[in-house]
Amino acid sequence: RSNDLEEAARKIGKIPDDSIVIIDGLALAPLAESVEKHSKRLLVVGLVHHPLAEETGLIAAQKSQFQIRERRALGACTHVIVTSSTTAATLTRDYGVPRKNIDVIEPGVGEMPISVGSGTSSLSLLCVGTLTPRKGHKVLLTALASLRRFPWTLTCVGDLGRDKQTSMCVQNYAAKLGILNRTCFVGTLSTSKMVGVFRCTDLFVLASYYEGYGMAIAEALASGIPVVATGVGAVPVT
Predict the structure, then answer these.
(1) Which domains does the chain have, with CATH numbers?
(2) pTM for the complete prediction?
(3) DSSP for the chain?
(4) Confidence bin at 1 (pLDDT 50/70/90)
(5) pLDDT in tens, 13-22
């Protein structure tokens, strides 16, 4: 929102000279002008999970605008931290960030209880991801609809309100495919509830179009749950 960006820009302007300022990748492109303006007096560090231009569903003009603004902001950063070697390679190849200016710090995963599975004859599938176009829920549902002759249930965990249009579209699509009765959209869950969900899961599934790092995949693997996912972005190296 414009008011939030203006407030953030004002706060950056008040930060004392030679301070280290870490800016999340979600804010880098919108704050490109401020990053450039203060890059001579501040040590700006960008924290990038994946370039915003990699989001699914952008029209060509939006994608181009994100690329231009992210390239400007990243060029003004003293250093960049990324969550995977895949993102590091992307920033060097497509955004001109020198590799020596990038550090890869993968998110850590705490100790997770090992899954005991559902203990039923029906395969308990779990998908974790905000309902946005990039997460590919419709791809997953299409694949599962072709497997309706097998016993399975799918639990989708993830924010249903960030992109309400996509959320409604995905749920309507499950109904259209005739698998809504086997698919449960539970929204966002607390950490303690997620531990319980992981513990009773037989298989983790994710059909994303792009991932800067597969955090949910890492948590599933730490829980001893096998994973079936699209081999995109940093998924193969998670």
Answers:
(1) 2-104 (3.40.50.2000), 123-237 (3.40.50.2000)
(2) 0.87
(3) -HHHHHHHHHHHHHSPTT-EEEEEHHHHTTTHHHHHHHTTTSEEEEEESS-GGG-TT--HHHHHHHHHHHHHHHHH-SEEEESSHHHHHHHHHHH---GGGEEE-PPP----PPP----SSSEEEEEES-SSGGG-HHHHHHHHHTTTTS-EEEEEES-SSTTHHHHHHHHHHHHHHT-GGGEEEEE---HHHHHHHHHT-SEEEE--S--SS-HHHHHHHHTT--EEE---TTGGG-
(4) low
(5) 999 999 999 9
